[in-house]
Amino acid sequence: MALMMIRGLLWIAPGTPAAMYWFWALQDALGPNPVEALLRALGEWSLIGLCLTLSVSPVVKILRKPKWMLWRRRLGLWTFAYVLQHLAVYVVFEMPGFTLVVNDVLQRPFIAVGFVSALILAALAVTSYQRARIHMGPQRWQRLHQGVYVAAALAMLHFYWMRTGKNDFTDVWLFGLWLAALLLWRVVRARG
Amino acid sequence: MSLLPKPSEITPPAVYAQRRLWLQSMAAGGAGAALTAWGQRSAFAAMPPVVRPGVLAPLPAQRSDVAGALVTDPLTPYRDVSTYNNFYEFGTRKEDPAKHAHRMPTRPWTVQVDGLVHKPQTFDIEDLMRLSPMQERIYRMRCVEGWSMVIPWLGYSLSALVSAVQPMGSAKYVEFYTLANPEVMPGLRSRVLQWPYVEGLRLDEATHPLTLLSFGLYGEVLPNANGAPVRLVVPWKYGFKSGKSIVRIRFVEQQPRTSWNVSAPHEYGFFSNVNPKVAHPRWSQASERRIGQGGLTTRRQPTLMFNGYAEQVAHLYAGMDLKRFY
User: Fold this and answer.
1) CA nearest to B298 within chain A
2) Do B190 and A107 touch (CB under 8 A)?
3) Fewer CB within 10 Å: C terminus or N terminus of chain B?
4) A59–B contact, CB cutoff 8 A
5) pLDDT tens digit string along B174-227?
6) Distance between CA A48 and CA A50 in Å, rounded?
7) B174 has which bridge partners?
């Protein structure tokens, strides 16, 4: 019973940051510009989620903990949940209305890049369960899910482009190095 | 009991002047127009006084009678005004100025006024504050990033200072220099902009009555984060045109090389008038988010031409292609 409780808590733990931000939003405790604060927090947590998801398999292989592999899908789905919330805040609160969104995307191409990244992640999320994998065949499924790197690259471009306004790239470097290290690890392993 | 009137019983000079104006225009036969003006005047009179937050030293002032100087939009709360803004000398994040600016000493402080003027001089801040009577003005402030505020500033028209130093005929522009002290300004380590921060106006913009030399807001002296002890406020231009913590004002013949214009010339022009029809290369300027107006569900509002000051300032740009001179 206690074990199940712990398992359950572990399952929902990755939702904590989002829950906190929504709670603060309801309390109007997100500062002078709540929409901006919520949008940015959910965006940054989406990137953190993406990096964590992609870190699962290297960690499993380096530490030899095959059971932890379960966390890859779990964190991947959580990441997509963050992306969806990020998108929802943008569409519902920042630019409510189809024409507003279209005009904004035309003006700010970095938003279109974010949309494409989210679309790829959606394709991965809907094919993440076991039956889809069997139905598609492991090779095709694998190839589709390697698309996560394309999604990550686009997400980074989206983030970098947004930050050019402030010339402040500290976080961009941080996420960029994390993702580059993961990619390098995979390339080296595939060759070796 | 004293026979002298109490200060509260004295008609403020601004109100007195407006009554004179009303009588004059009635005499001139413009009764309809005068009644409109009278209606606006009573609307201002009915505006509740700005409540001091009680954070900094009070700075007494009279409500301004300059045309367009008192907008009736609801004020942005003091907390938002003083904790959410850009002042890159203290860092590029909106919370950085409030976090770091308290280390900046604002006394002693002098403002050097020189260049093409007959009477160049260096003002002590106390003398500068006494140069002309303090007025309270409620201006919209539109940031180029797409957010806006409504702020009750204290100060006087920059034109008072301009006439005190007597510009030469050759002076066509005015440059404003912000303090650049690396000991108290961590942002100076970043190369986002050239330091010191330089802004500039055409002389006719600088002498427009709405162009404010500001020493305070919300009935008190300026918070450091907002550009203490003295800053510029040009309400019809994007916020970055209004230099903060000014140490030098220089009159020149050539158009100044302003910091943002040097850093990204295709994005930030010299004029930078608020204009919903001229987009920033990377985003639209058609709408803005008003800070301090409700929470998540508050929608963006349309941006007004010249930030709503077209009636007062449009003539300055008559015949100019505002897409070219952005």
Assistant:
1) A93
2) no
3) N
4) no
5) 999 999 999 999 999 988 899 999 999 999 999 999 999 999 999 999 999 999
6) 5
7) B201, B251
